[in-house]
Amino acid sequence: MRYRKHWIGLAIVFAASFVILGGQGVKLTRQLPPIPGHVVDAATGQELFDAATIRRGQNVWQSIGGQEVGSIWGHGAYVAPDWTADWLHRESVLILDGWARAARFSSFEAAPPETRAALQARLTAMVRPNGYDDARDEVRLPPERVAAFQQNAAHYADVFSAGRDAYAIPRGALKDPTRLREMAAFFWWTSWVAATNRPGDSVTYTSNWPHEPLIQNVATPGTTLWSLLSVILLLAAIGALVWHRAAQPEEAAPSPPPLDPFRSVPLSPSQRATMKYFLVVAALFLAQVALGGVTAHYGVEGQSFYGIPLGEWLPYAVTRSWHTQLGIFWIATAWLGTGLFLAPAIGVEPRFQKLGVNVLFGALLVIVVGALVGQWLSVQQRLGGQLWYWFGHQGYEYVDLGRFWQIFLFAGLFIWLALMGRALWPALRRRDEQRPLLVLFVLSSAAIALFYGAGLMYGRQSHLASVEYWRWWVVHLWVEGFFEVFATAAIAFLFVRMGVLRTAAATPAVLFATAVFLAGGIVGTLHHLYFTGTPNSALALGAMFSALEVAPLTLIGYDVWQNLRAVRQSSGAPDWMARYRWPVYFFVAVAFWNLLGAGVFGFLINPPISLYYVQGLNLTPVHGHTALFGVYGMLGIGLALFSLRVLSRRAEWREGVLRFAFWSLNVGLLVMVTLSLLPIGLIQAQAAIERGTWYARSAELLQSPLLVHLRWLRVPGDVIFAAGVVALAWFVIGLKTGWSYRTRAPATEEAAAVELGAAS
């Protein structure tokens, strides 16, 4: 009852946000770009291909890696072209060159400016009007576009059958002529959607993305207007939060207890069983970083790794799939392991809890191994029929794992939720001052289990725009949304138990922060969907609400530093608090990267006018690396170290290894981004503005000497970062083998802690 207004506010934000986001989903369903039942040669009346061919082509593209081999509508990998932009530009140039030769010029570029302008106007008049006949369910193409389709189809058949080192596509990636033509039909459709105005409108289905001056695909007035308004809203929101923060009364820091509260409670069998989760976290983290190095290097050598033809066995599509998927796996495992560790400490140890923890661990191992093996088999075209979809590679970034493994993981999350709930239930029934924090912790745990199910809302042949809508529910809402709430509640609960925070101060702060974050974060999901066939209203809503996401990040480090300062300046601070310094330092790193990675680099690409030019360029992985690892990875490491500190309660850690790991990870990430990814992204952005999206993703630019040198400059940051990963893994494994600690605390200290806990 004390926090009723906070709960009501949070409930209103939650409900209203999902009404808006759900409403956009309904609107999208009603305004999906059509997939023509028949694409016909207008001159002969002969059908080139039908809707079933386009859908099969989408499946072919998915099965060989999909968004891990180039990108579609700007979403996917960065070495190969964006197939939408590339097809559209090649088709435009083929048509313009044909007309120029008819006018007795060697090519379009060789024609005088006035002729080029006239030919561009003629091309725009051909491709921009909506030629879809709803009554006949067909699109009729003039002879020029038919000829361009045939030439483009032959070009892409050669790319995927003969391979391209510049694109990191191996020879024989796709061999079947029928499947190659089906994929060409899908590529054509994605570019047709991007070049065709919506009925009764002067804007294409993708809001004029990609930037292609040859057909007047330029940023719309709404793209610019909503970008400017989003900046104004951001400034206003930051000002309001600063005023709100300044209005809060300052409270004296609490005095931490003389002995470690976490050592006053004996470890339960299920808590000890979570140790294996953190060992797997270290192993998966090592594997992910190794694959990241290989994947980045393919951008320079194509199919080789320092001369070794590694691409013959592990092509780019596989290494990138594994790299992104392992990132999700190890971060999620760290958080799930932390939840299983905390639940008995907060509540009780139910019967068979250890068995449940072990069963879930086995299930996670099966999912990880099965998903990775299936992806390799699918990309290598060794899964026939629909097996590629169920056990192989769905083709969508971050949710690449086959549908069977996706369902298996969804079930595993509910097993995790059940294990959490049964341990926490007695604590939930107690009406003490920590109950609101605990309720939020449980609700966020339930949301983690539930919202992963959004990835099951589309099927094998679902419309691509619909797939993108639901995919971002998983990537944005699941990873960036409810995991964030879970972590906020978990950290607050840990600090309260440590005596660093007062419950009366932490509870309203966490509830308020959650409401503010979700107010922007839920509807802010739409900022990923500006140019994916969604209605124009998604652009306006995504721009405004994604700006609100940035606002709380500007103050996120304030409370962390305030708590650290209070601990350091507290007279007579107990010695036991020093044992938790490195988990807390990783929490501080989370605050730093939240501001820089999610805030600065996130807002660099979030406004529609910015994303219009940089979608699918290297500014996206700048934000991706600094936000996904910098925030959620650092947070997973901090939570894991906190759990390990309690698990090894009597050990005196060798903290030099942790110190090296902490600074190597942070410095390496910063060097990697600032020396390589950021400058490459800025050069690409300039190229996209000046010449078009196709050129910013072309081999002509990406394989130029300057950009090759900039990619090599990623090596120093990668090496520093990898050294930190090795040190961290060495430390975690060493807690099991004895390498990472010197001595154990005397039994008298342990007994005193237990005695204190019993007395309290």
Radius of gyration: 27 Å
Which oligomeric form is depicted?
A: single chain
What value does the average pLDDT take?
Answer: 91
Rough shape?
Answer: globular
Helix content: 55-70%
| DSSP strand count | 8
User: What gap, in angstroms, lies between the N and C termini?
Assistant: 27 Å
Strand order across the largest sheet: 2-1-6-5
For the sheet with most strands, the description reads: 4 strands, mixed
* Number of H/I helices: 27
Approximately how much beta-strand content do the residues carry?
under 5%
Helical/strand content category: mainly alpha
Task: Kindly list the characteristics that best describe this protein.
760 residues, mainly alpha, 4 domains, 4-stranded mixed beta sheet, two-stranded antiparallel sheet, 27 helices, 8 strands, 3% strand, disordered C terminus
Describe this structure in words.
It contains 27 helices and 8 strands. Helix 9 runs antiparallel to helix 10, helix 9 runs antiparallel to helix 26 and helix 16 packs antiparallel against helix 17. The two termini are 27 Å apart. The chain has 760 residues and is mainly α. It has 4 domains: 154 residues, no CATH class; 182 residues, no CATH class; 163 residues; 169 residues, Cytochrome c oxidase-like, subunit I domain (Cytochrome C Oxidase, Chain A).
